[in-house]
C-alpha cells in the first residue's frame, strides 16, 4: 500500500529539498527524456520560474506528440449533496444546515436526458457526497445502470470503496474513478477533516491501491490547492503516481490541480496559487509524465483554460452544474463550488476548434467493457 511508501518520505525534508533547487537542477531536468521525482522537484521549485517559457514549449511538444491537438470533453453529474464529513473547506460538509438533495432514479434519468440535450457528451463523471446510507454502493450501482444507456464512459467521484465494491460496479458500466487526496500532509490532514469517514487518512490514501487492484480502466488523482504548500503536496502526488504506475501498469491515470473556489462556510485558503504557478505545475507534470491526462474543470476561467489547453491540458469539462438536479433546473440545491467558466458546451467546443484543436466527445465504447 502507498501509505507504507509515504511513511518513508519526510514532508519537511521534501519541502527543503524543493526550495534548495537551483538553475542547474532545472536545466538538467529540462534536458532529460525521462524524469524522476527529484527532477520534478526542480521544475516546481522557485528556481524554475525564470524557465517558464522553455517549460511551456516542452510541455506543448510532449502533449502534441502523445495526444495530438485534441481536447477530451466530460461533464459532471451531481447525484447527492448529503455528506457525513466535516471538511472545513466544503459547502457540502455535515455542519452546514441546509436541505440536502439526493436524486431519485427518475431524477437521475431526467438529468442524463438534460445533459444529452446540452451536447454529445459521452464521458460522464458521477459525483456524490460521502453518505453510505443515502448514496451507498447499491445506490451507485443503480445510478450507473441508469446512466449507461446514455453515456459510453462512466467515472465516479464518491467515497473511497472496498476493492470488491469497485469490482462490482464495473459490471454496471464503471470505467474509472476520481479521488482527491486533498493533502498528503499526514499531520495536518485531520485539521481539515476532523470528523466523518474522510477523517481516516490511511483508508483514503490506500483507496487508489484498491482501485488499481480492481483493474479500473482509469484512476484520477488530485490535491486541493489552498490547504498546504502546493509544491510539496504536488510532489507527493508525483511520488504516488510513479508508485501506482509501477504496480498497476495496465491502468491509465489523470491528474487535476483544483484551486479553492468560494463555498458555504467561508473557509479562507491557507495558500493562494496564482495563474502563473498553476501553469508552472501543469508544465512540470507534463514534462514529468508524457502520458498522464491533465484535466481542468470549470473552476478555471475561460481565458486561462484556452491558454493552457494549448500547452499541456488534455481534458476539460463544460456546461457544468455542481448541484444535484442542476441540469433540469439550476440553482435548486447547494452547489459544491462556484463555476468560473459558464460557457455552454457548444461555445466551449466552438472556441476550441477556432484555436486549431479538435474536440473529442467519445474515447471509449461499451463494447470494451
Tag the structure with descriptive keywords:
single chain; 9 strands; alpha/beta; 41% helix; eight-stranded parallel barrel
Overview of the structural elements:
This protein is of the alpha/beta class and 369 residues long. Helices cover 41% and strands 14% of the residues. The chain has helices spanning 2-6, 11-20, 23-30, 37-44, 52-67, 105-118, 132-135, 137-147, 163-170, 186-192, 201-205, 207-213, 230-247, 275-288, 302-309, 345-354; strands spanning 70-80, 123-128, 153-157, 174-182, 218-223, 252-256, 293-296, 315-317, 358-360. It has an 8-stranded parallel beta barrel, surrounded by 5 helices. The longest helix has 18 residues, at 230-247. The radius of gyration is 20 Å and the shape is globular. The mean pLDDT is 93.
Order of helices and strands: HHHHHEHEHHEHEHHHEHEHEHEHE
Largest sheet report:
8 strands, parallel, barrel
| N→C terminal distance | 27 Å
What is the subunit organization of this protein?
Answer: single chain
Strand content: 5-15%
Q: Which strand order do you get reading across the main beta sheet?
A: 1-2-3-4-5-6-7-8
Q: What structural category characterises the helix and strand content?
A: alpha/beta
Helix content: 40-55%
The average pLDDT score comes to 93
What is the helix tally?
A: 16
Give the uncertain stretches in residue-range form.
none
Please give the radius of gyration in angstroms. 20 Å
Amino acid at each position: 500500500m502507498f501509505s507504507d511508501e509515504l511513511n518513508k518520505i519526510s514532508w519537511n525534508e521534501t519541502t527543503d529539498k524543493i526550495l534548495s533547487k537551483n538553475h542547474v537542477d532545472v536545466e538538467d531536468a529540462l534536458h532529460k527524456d525521462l524524469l524522476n521525482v527529484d527532477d520534478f522537484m526542480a521544475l516546481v521549485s522557485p528556481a524554475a520560474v525564470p524557465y517558464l517559457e522553455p517549460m511551456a514549449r516542452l510541455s506543448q511538444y510532449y502533449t502534441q506528440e502523445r495526444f495530438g491537438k485534441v481536447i477530451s470533453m466530460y461533464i459532471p453529474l451531481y447525484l447527492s449533496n448529503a455528506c457525513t464529513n466535516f471538511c472545513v473547506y466544503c459547502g457540502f460538509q455535515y455542519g452546514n444546515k441546509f436541505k440536502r438533495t439526493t436524486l431519485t432514479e427518475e431524477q437521475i434519468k431526467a438529468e442524463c436526458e438534460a445533459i444529452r440535450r446540452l451536447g454529445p457528451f459521452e464521458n460522464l463523471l458521477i459525483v456524490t457526497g460521502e453518505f453510505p446510507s443515502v448514496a451507498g454502493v447499491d445506490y451507485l450501482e443503480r445510478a450507473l445502470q441508469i446512466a449507461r444507456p446514455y453515456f459510453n464512459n462512466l467515472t465516479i467521484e464518491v467515497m473511497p470503496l472496498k476493492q470488491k465494491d469497485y469490482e462490482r460496479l464495473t459490471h454496471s458500466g464503471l470505467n474509472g474513478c476520481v479521488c482527491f487526496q486533498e493533502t498528503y500532509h499526514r499531520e495536518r490532514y485531520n485539521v481539515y477533516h476532523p470528523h466523518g469517514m474522510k477523517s481516516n487518512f490511511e483508508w483514503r490514501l490506500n483507496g487508489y491501491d484498491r482501485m488499481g487492484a480492481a483493474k479500473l480502466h482509469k484512476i484520477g488523482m488530485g490535491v486541493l490547492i489552498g490547504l498546504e504548500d502546493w509544491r510539496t503536496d504536488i510532489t507527493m502526488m508525483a511520488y504516488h503516481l510513479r508508485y501506482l504506475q509501477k504496480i498497476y501498469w495496465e491502468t491509465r491515470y489523470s491528474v487535476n490541480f483544483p484551486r479553492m473556489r468560494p463555498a458555504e462556510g467561508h473557509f479562507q485558503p491557507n495558500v493562494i496559487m496564482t495563474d502563473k504557478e498553476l501553469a508552472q505545475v501543469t508544465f512540470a507534470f507534463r514534462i514529468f509524465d508524457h502520458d498522464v491526462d491533465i484535466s481542468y474543470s470549470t473552476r478555471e476561467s475561460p481565458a486561462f483554460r484556452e491558454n493552457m489547453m494549448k500547452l499541456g491540458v488534455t481534458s476539460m469539462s463544460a456546461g457544468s452544474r455542481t448541484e444535484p438536479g442542476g441540469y433540469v433546473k439550476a440553482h435548486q440545491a447547494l452547489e459544491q463550488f462556484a463555476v468560473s467558466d459558464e460557457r455552454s458546451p457548444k461555445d466551449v467546443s466552438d472556441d476550441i476548434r477556432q484555436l486549431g484543436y479538435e474536440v473529442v466527445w467519445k474515447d471509449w465504447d461499451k463494447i470494451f467493457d
